[in-house]
Amino acid sequence: TTIENWAASAELSNSYLLDDDVDLQAAARNTEEKGLPFEIAVPAEHGKLLQLLATSIGARRILEVGTLGGYSAIWLARALPDGGELITLEVNPKHAEVARENVAIAHLEHKVKIIVGPAIETLETLAPEPPFDFIFIDADKANNTTYFTHAKRLVRTGGTIFVDNMYLVGLVANEEYTDDNVVGVRALLHALKNDPEVDCTTVGTACYKGFDGFLYAIKK
Ligand code: SAM
Q1: Which domains are seen in the chain, by residue range?
Q2: Gap from CA of 1 to ligand 1 centroid (Å)
Q3: Ligand 1 centroid distance, CA of 66 (Å)
Q4: Which of 27, 40, 126, 167 makes a 20 to 30 Å CA pair with 206?
């Protein structure tokens, strides 16, 4: 089978299961018009999965590392009840500006706080009181282990840490590949082996962008 078949199947499923979402479509369009690489945002069906997972644990506080144009942030923020908050971290001021516009398009300004700066520096300023219920890591993979270490400190017991791009088109297992992203994913796997603080699994995925996978972790 080909990735085109997967993409077509995902599109068919989405046409049945996902709402025709005017705000998200407008946000996606705005992201592309402003010249941001929208193709690196999560696909719609993963955005919906993030929203469902956050909803299923009753998340009131969500943290995201890697905002881009706020596409996944919008999905996640929609899981929040009144008074809930999503904090999302982005190093690129242009990305943050477009994300602010998109969050406004989706009428979620009151729930979303975008903090501009290198995520590690911002994470060092965040305290776990009150803790986060759900943390989504989707930035530069080279820093994944540091992000994950902070996530464990900031998430509540029983809370979720979700890390995107854990298979990277299947290159993670190919030792010939030594780019920063692949090395970053391997380092995180190494750190997670026998980590007593979390219970995790990875799941391989396919979408219009190709093959990849995510990590789902629960803080013990
Ligand atoms: N989560 C977004 C979505 O699905 O809509 C996509 C995020 S995109 C894959 C990764 C983002 O992380 C980019 O916008 C990039 O500028 C940002 N980023 C890269 N390095 C970063 C760093 N050191 N600190 C904070 N953000 C960073």
Answers
A1: 3-219 (3.40.50.150)
A2: 31
A3: 3
A4: 27
